[in-house]
Every structure is written in structure tokens, then in C-alpha cells.
Amino acid sequence: MAVRLVGTALVLQLSSGALAETPIPALGVHSLSSPHTDLYTAFLIEASRRFALPEHWVRAVLQVESNGNAGAVSSRGALGLMQIMPQTWVELSTRYDLGANPFDPHDNILAGAAYLREMLDRFGPEGFLAAYNVGPKRYETYLSTGRPLPLETTIYVARLVRLIGIKQHEYAALAIRQTVPKQQGALFFDRSDGAWVNARSTSALGFMNSPKGFPNMNGLALVPGVSQLFVQQSTEAELR
């Protein structure tokens, strides 16, 4: 399945080759307003400005991912409002100068918006939503081999397309803007296994491996120790 812009409509191309045309409604932030997401409006506005994304895009992703549940943990281990995988959280929190707690609403929203922006810059309007859901490596596999994306991703993209209502002129204005991570306060050092970490990334790893990081997870360590920054993929969807 792919998503591409055609005139004023988004066309979803399914793995079977069938085309289904979905009109783009002129949806804005008020169309997505709900008690579950309105609590985070200030954080959504900040994320929108910092990462050069329409606020209602970020709000829509938050709504679909967690429906405003800041403590949400998916069956695959995705965390918080924007449902970020643990190792992705470590990378984003380091890159964008965020805190150690993935359940902090402010930092989770900023991390999710940063990741959404990265996927938009990398895959464009036709692929960024699918890549956010299934992960960039799995989406690249789809592009290079045609291996169908999971049904979950197809449904996810279709739902967000209706909520977001991407317009060509809106994306064109965004495409020329770039977001630069904040200057990192800590110096990076080279690990013996070749990965780069800093004080912030080890802090995030330590938090998520501590009992207070996941009080309701019965001690389950969702992120490995510092010597194993990345975990093995165990499901159809990439651990994004």
C-alpha cells in the first residue's frame, strides 16, 4: 500500500493494485478537538512550531495512536501519547535534547513530532504516515521489493488521511523548511561496539530499565542495557 497525492485527493494504492480514491476534507485543529487531546494543546503547539508541522497533523497522530492516554503501552511495547518504541525514544531523546521519561506528555509529544518530521523529510507525503506506523526499514523494504505492508498499517494510514486532510500547498510550504536538533549539551563518546551514546541516552536507558520507569509492567525491561542499544525485531512491524 502506498499513499500519493493526485490533484486534491490522496490515492491509496493497495498491494493488490486496486485504487481507492479518498477526498481530502478541509480539516483543521477544531475538527480534531476532544477532551482527550485538548489537555495537551500547549505541547502540540510547541511541537508544531519546533518541527514545522501543522498542529492538527500531530494532534491527529496522537489521537489515533493513544487517544490521549499518556501511560499507554502497546502489545509491542510502544510508549506514551505518540506510541514511540523504547529504542527509538532513546535516540530521539538524545537527538532533540529531551528528558529520560518516555511517558512525560511534553517530551513524548515532541519526540513523536520529531519522528513524524523525519519520516516526512525521508519519504515525503506519500509515505511518511506508513513509515511512522511500520518503521522506516520495513517501509523501505516495501518500496524496494513490493512486499505488502501489514493490514494494520493500511487501516492506520487511511484513518489518518481522513483526519489530517493533507493539501498540496500545505506540504509544499513545509518541504522547504528543515528542523535542526537543539545543540546537545553533553559530549558524545564512542562505545566499544561502535554505537554513539552520550549522558542523555544512558540516562534514558537507565530510566526505562528501572522499576520506576514502568511501574505497571511487573519489572519487564523494554529496553536492553547500554551494551545493547538495539533490540531484535520480533514482529511483522519494525520496532519503530
UniProtKB/TrEMBL annotation:
Pfam families according to UniProt: SLT
Q: Which domain of life is it from?
A: Bacteria
* Ranges where the Transglycosylase SLT domain occurs: 45-143
Keyword list (alphabetical) reads: Signal
Instruction: Fetch the InterPro entries from UniProt.
Output: Lysozyme-like_dom_sf, Transglycosylase_SLT_dom_1
User: Which residues belong to the signal peptide in this entry?
Assistant: 1-20
Keyword Membrane applies: no
State the family it belongs to. Answer: Belongs to the transglycosylase Slt family. Belongs to the virb1 family.
Question: What is this protein identified as?
Answer: Transglycosylase SLT domain-containing protein
- Give the organism, scientific name: Bradyrhizobium manausense
